[in-house]
């Protein structure tokens, strides 16, 4: 490490220490008043973050506190989170200075254990949360949430959290598939006695006002909504657009999501409309009302929020058959499923085949669109979601 790096590291450590002092002076009383304390990694734009925000909203009638334990790459939902709860970003406390982390952890454990009003703590995908919960009083209910299960041979939070399963009062999952995966993992680790603590709470979304599925007849849109991440395979969407643009010029491809900056040139070369990160929900709703088909090209998912949202607008999902998507997406009824075990080129060709089929068959497209909307409205309402989380966290 050169002198410049050493100086920079020193100032980061000093900054973290000063920030910790400020936290102790100004934030501890807010934590003392909290009924629920949340530990989330991020507030940037994403499906998981939208679920976390909805959980916070479910208990916003009481005072709560949120710790964000990792560094977010955009402002995303930050304002909305802090609208419904007090909170603090603690990445610097956990990563800049061992002494700062030790002091912060000790102070936080003491404060949480002394809280008179606290009902529960709740975490998702936060390593610090699991390290913390063995030190909290037994009277405090402890819950976590898993969005998508990562197979044990690939590591992940599921493996890291195993030593702390005994400390969790409930482990929340969003679908039957994830519950089954956990039960298999528990069995292999002689933890089956904790199966009964796994509870399913499906995600929900707010009813979208005046959602409809009457699309413009002269333009046919195929969309991708999601962050640029390895497991979502956005490059496959680009490849599909590249293969189709010369033969079907009336089919427009559009992408929306954060973290697209490094790939702007490739997106443009594929002839794709790049919306980037959409921070205004009304703009996203406008695009859902235009898009005919949504592609989910992922090799790993739980159940994407974008499927739930778009179906309410009559958008037809075409998705790889991964995670729990097949629990809601029924092939040739409210969308299409494509097997993920095929080689990549064959998966791309299957997507193209379904796009062309819907493009050329107006009657079939309208039928699937109606089915998608009806299913979305009936299955994905927010009220049941809110009631279950309110009961879990406050009762």
TrEMBL record:
Gene3D superfamilies: Glycogen Phosphorylase B
Signal peptide: none
Domain Glycosyl transferase family: 215-374
Domain of life: Bacteria
GO molecular function, one term: glycosyltransferase activity
Protein name: Glycosyl transferase family 1 domain-containing protein
CDD domains: GT4_PimA-like (cd03801)
Pfam family membership, one: Glycos_transf_1
SUPFAM superfamilies to which the protein is assigned, alphabetical: UDP-Glycosyltransferase/glycogen phosphorylase
């Amino acid at each position: 490490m050169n002198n410049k790096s050493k100086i920079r590291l020193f100032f980061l450590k000093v900054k973290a220490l000063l920030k910790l002092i400020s936290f102790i002076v100004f934030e501890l009383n807010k934590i003392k008043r909290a009924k629920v304390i949340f530990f989330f990694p991020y507030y940037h734009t994403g499906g998981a973050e939208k679920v976390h925000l909805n959980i916070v909203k479910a208990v916003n009638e009481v005072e709560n506190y949120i710790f964000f334990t990792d560094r977010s790459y955009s402002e995303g939902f930050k304002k909305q989170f802090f609208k419904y709860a007090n909170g603090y970003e603690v990445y610097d406390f956990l990563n800049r200075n061992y002494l700062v982390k030790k002091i912060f952890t000790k102070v936080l454990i003491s404060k949480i254990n002394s809280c008179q009003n606290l009902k529960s703590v709740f975490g998702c995908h936060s390593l610090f949360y699991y390290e913390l919960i063995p030190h909290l009083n037994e009277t405090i209910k402890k819950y976590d949430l898993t969005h998508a299960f990562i197979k044990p041979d690939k590591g992940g939070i599921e493996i890291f959290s195993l030593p702390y399963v005994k400390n969790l009062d409930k482990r929340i999952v969003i679908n039957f598939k994830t519950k089954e995966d956990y039960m298999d993992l528990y069995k292999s680790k002689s933890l089956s006695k904790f199966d009964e603590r796994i509870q399913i709470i499906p995600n929900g979304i707010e009813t979208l006002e005046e959602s409809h599925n009457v699309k413009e007849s002269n333009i046919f849109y195929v969309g991708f909504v999601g962050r640029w991440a390895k497991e979502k395979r956005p490059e496959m969407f680009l490849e599909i657009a590249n293969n189709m643009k010369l033969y079907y010029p009336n089919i427009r491809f559009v992408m929306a999501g954060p973290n697209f900056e490094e790939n702007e040139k490739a997106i443009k070369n594929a002839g794709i409309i790049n919306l980037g990160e959409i921070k205004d929900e009304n703009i996203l709703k406008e695009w859902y009302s235009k898009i005919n088909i949504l592609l989910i090209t992922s090799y790993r998912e739980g159940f994407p929020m974008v499927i739930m949202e778009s179906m309410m607008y009559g958008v037809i999902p075409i998705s790889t058959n991964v995670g729990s998507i097949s629990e809601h997406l029924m092939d040739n009824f409210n969308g299409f499923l494509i097997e993920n075990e095929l080689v990549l080129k064959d998966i791309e060709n299957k997507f193209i085949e379904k796009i062309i089929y819907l493009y050329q068959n107006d009657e079939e497209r309208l039928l699937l669109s109606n089915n998608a909307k009806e299913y979305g409205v009936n299955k994905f309402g927010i009220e049941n979601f809110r009631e279950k989380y309110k009961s879990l966290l406050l009762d």
